[in-house]
TrEMBL record:
The lineage of its organism: unclassified sequences, metagenomes, ecological metagenomes. Residues 8-72 form the MIP18 family-like domain. This is ATPase involved in chromosome partitioning. InterPro entries: FSCA_dom_sf, MIP18-like. Pfam families: FeS_assembly_P. SUPFAM superfamilies: Fe-S cluster assembly (FSCA) domain-like (SSF117916).
C-alpha cells in the first residue's frame, strides 16, 4: 500500500480509464487484465488485440496517469489477446466506436 491507498483504490482508478476511440473503459474492453500492488509499485498487465497498435503509447500513458497520481510507481506488462478475447473486443469496438 502507498500512503494508506489500497489495491482496491488503484483498481477503481484504472477502471475509470476509457479507450480513446471506443466509448468503453479499458477494463470493459478486456485490455486491462490484472493489477498487482507490492509496496509502492503497481504492476498492470494489459492485453492488446493485435501487436503494434498505433495508440499503444497513449493507452499505456492513460493507465499510468491515475496510478502515478495516487503516488505509486507503475509497471506495464504487455501481452496479446487470445482469439476469443479479441473477438469480444472487436464486438464491443464495433458497437461503441466513436473515433479519435
Amino acid at each position: 500500500m502507498v500512503n494508506n491507498i489500497s489495491e482496491e483504490d488503484f483498481r477503481k482508478a484504472v477502471a475509470q480509464v476509457k479507450h480513446p476511440a471506443i466509448d468503453c473503459t479499458l477494463v470493459d474492453l478486456g485490455i486491462v487484465k490484472d493489477i498487482t500492488v507490492k509496496g509502492d509499485k503497481v504492476a498492470v498487465t494489459i492485453a492488446f488485440p493485435v501487436p503494434n497498435i498505433p495508440i499503444r503509447d497513449m493507452i499505456i500513458n492513460n493507465i499510468k496517469e491515475p496510478i502515478i497520481k495516487l503516488g505509486a510507481e507503475c509497471q506495464i506488462k504487455e501481452t496479446i489477446m487470445t482469439s476469443k478475447e479479441r473477438e469480444a473486443f472487436l464486438d464491443k469496438e464495433q458497437k461503441n466506436w466513436k473515433g479519435i
